[in-house]
Amino acid sequence: MSRQYETVIGLEVHVELAAKTKIFCGCSTEFGGAPNSHTCPVCTGMPGSLPVLNRQVVEYALAVGLAVNCQINQFCKFDRKNYFYPDNPQNYQISQLYLPICHDGWIEIETESGGKKRIGIHEIHMEEDAGKLIHDEWEDCSLVDYNRSGVPLIEIVSEPDMRNAEEVIAYLEKLRLIIQYLGASDCRLQEGSMRADVNLSVREAGAAELGTRTEMKNLNSFKAIARAIEGEKRRQIECLEDGKPVIQETRRWDDNKESSRAMRSKEDAKDYRYFPDPDLPPVVISDQWIAKIRARQPELRTEKIGRYISQFGLPLYDAQILTGSKHLADVFEAVTEICQKPKEASNWLMVEAMRLLKEHEMEPEDMKFSPIHLAKLIAMVSAGEINRTVAKSVFEEIFLSDADPEAYVEEKGLKVVNDTGALQTVIEKVLADYPQSVADYKGGKEKAMGFLVGQTMKAMKGKADPAAVSRLLKENLT
């Protein structure tokens, strides 16, 4: 009988904070920009330059720590992590090893297979990002862009409490939503503002001792993370089954090949020769400062779901979908405040907006239309100025180009035709053109009415009220 194995997973999640300037200088943190245009002597490691801590970075780190139930180190320090690499201009990184700002927290996740589970957070520390190497295969050289050097990060280190990819993704999704709701980061994986390194080991089921772990990097989507976990789990089990040792190392995941390769042996803290940074004083965090940050904490997803159900009368399913993106929730609340029709606002966002997001391969955060325009559309439908079929096509214009629905409907002549005489003329023609359907309806076939309504709406180019069409058809047929 083959041995059974258990996977043990911990994560190191790096999050780029939403501060407008870097952690130790006044350079812009804006994504993009010409290479090396957001730089100065401090973030390019020039001799004699001195770092000055950005207060906003500390406040974001505190906000995240409090939201994930961490203890706060009210006396914390920065340390130098020494390593030599071309994208690291100082030849060290300023980080926190000995006294990180937050420690001993947790978040609760929920999965279909395992239900609710608490995942421990070992620590959260502040640090600076490195630059970025661009490998030019055509010129056979590597170029370096220091725009990202000094961008403020927090690193959230979990306990090794996760056992499969489903738990990992649930943890990352919960963490991302918390940070987005706090406004501490946009957490866009595709832009690198949220990055996860996966520490994974396997051991025989029931064993108390942990196996040898590897760390996987280059993971820029949840799907890639899930595939990497499955791939590394298989690789380590095959090693153990073949009697080979698992080597502690850092591995690079290639999502196209669905395999990983060794990058370097895994370093320990001693290899980095950490020591307290001599240029930065300790950070002293008062009780009053913590209280101020705690008082500013926004409504997070769990509380928002409860409020949507109690205040707006939404079903749990609607509330969960709408709060699954902070931007989507913000749009819903803005539309509802204007039109005072929460269920209508919810329906448009959950059905039509979600359909268009899928069609155009967009994220909710990519929606740019004004809530005022959706509120106007809802009002126009409620007032009977346009029918729902026309409203769907108008919403598509709002979604794609933020069109003003009133102006668009007027320009395209899409208002409902309320001229009973004009509608009566069209109905008489439809009844004359489809005598068989008329006979079918009179013979008791109710489906024939649907066909006749459809033909009338088609003749009216969708600009009639379906209820009025149905009523007039029945009057004519009886």
Give the helices and strands, then pairings.
Blueprint: E1 5-16, H1 55-67, E2 71-72, E3 75-76, E4 79-82, E5 92-95, E6 102-111, E7 115-128, E8 132-136, E9 141-145, E10 152-158, H2 165-182, E11 194-204, E12 214-217, H3 222-241, E13 249-254, E14 259-265, E15 275-276, E16 283-284, H4 287-296, H5 301-312, H6 316-322, H7 326-339, H8 342-359, H9 371-382, H10 388-401, H11 405-412, H12 420-433, H13 435-442, H14 447-459, H15 466-477
Parallel strand pairs: 12-13
Antiparallel strand pairs: 1-10, 1-11, 2-6, 3-16, 4-5, 4-15, 6-7, 7-10, 8-9, 11-12, 13-14
Helix pairs in contact: 2-3, 7-8, 7-9, 9-10, 12-14, 12-15, 13-14, 14-15
Give a written overview of the molecule.
There is one protein chain. This protein is of the alpha+beta class. It folds into 3 domains: 284 residues, no CATH class; 114 residues, no CATH class; 58 residues, Arc Repressor Mutant, subunit A (Orthogonal Bundle). Helix content is 40%, strand content 20%. It contains 15 helices and 16 strands. It has a 9-stranded mixed beta sheet with strand order 2-6-7-10-1-11-12-13-14. The chain has a 3-stranded antiparallel beta sheet with strand order 5-4-15, with no helix packed on it. Helix 2 packs antiparallel against helix 3, helix 12 packs across helix 14 and helix 14 packs across helix 15. The radius of gyration is 29 Å and the shape is elongated. The N and C termini lie far apart (78 Å). The mean pLDDT is 90. This is Aspartyl/glutamyl-tRNA(Asn/Gln) amidotransferase subunit B. It is an enzyme of class 6 (ligase). Pfam families: GatB_N, GatB_Yqey.
